[in-house]
Amino acid sequence: MANPYDHIPDRRKIVRRRVLEEALGVLVEDLPSGGEPPRPPVLALLRDALAKGRAEIRRRFEEPGPLRNDGPAVLAATSYLMDQIVRVLFDFADRYAYPAANPSAAERLGVVATGGYGRGELAPLSDLDLLFLRPYKQTPRGEQIVEFMLYLLWDLGLKVGHATRTVAESLRYAENDHTIRTALLEMRYLWGDRELFDELHKGFAQKFHTGDGRDFVEAKLAERDQRHQRMGDSRYVVEPNVKEGKGGLRDLHLLFWIAKYLYRVSEPGDLVAKGVLTKEEARLFERAERFLTTVRCHIHYLTGRVDDRLSFDLQREIAERLGYQDRPGSRGVERFTKHYYLHAKTVGDLTRIFVAALEDSHRRKPKLAALWQTLRPRQLEGFKLDGERLAVASPDTFTKDPVAILRLFHVAQENDLDIHPATLRLITQNIRLVDRLRNDPEANHLFMEMMTSRHDPETTLRRLNEAGVFGRFIPDFGRVVAQTQHDMYHTYTVDEHTIRAIGILASIENGTLKEDHPLSAEVVHKVLSRPVLYLSVLLHDIAKGRGGDHSVLGADVAMQVGPRLGLSAAETETVAWLVRHHLAMSGTAFQRDLMDPKTIENFAALVQSPERLRLLLVLTVCDIRAVGPNVWNGWKAALLRQLYNAAEQVMSGGTLAGGRADRIRQIQAEVGKRLASWTDQEKDEHFARGYAPYWLSFDPDTLARQAELVRGAERGRQPLAIEHRVDTARAVTEVTIYTLDTHGLFARLAGAMAVSGANIVDAKIFTLANGMALDTFWIQDLEGKPFDDSRRLARLAARVELALSNRLDIQRELDTQRGSWPKRDQVFTVQPRVLINNNASDTFTVIEVNGRDRPGFLHVVTRALTRLNLQIASAHITTYGERAVDVFYVKDLFGLKVVNQDKLNQVAATVEKSIRDFDTRFEPLPKAAE
Question: Taking a C-beta distance cutoff of 8 angstroms, is the pair 517, 582 a contact?
Answer without folding.
Answer: no
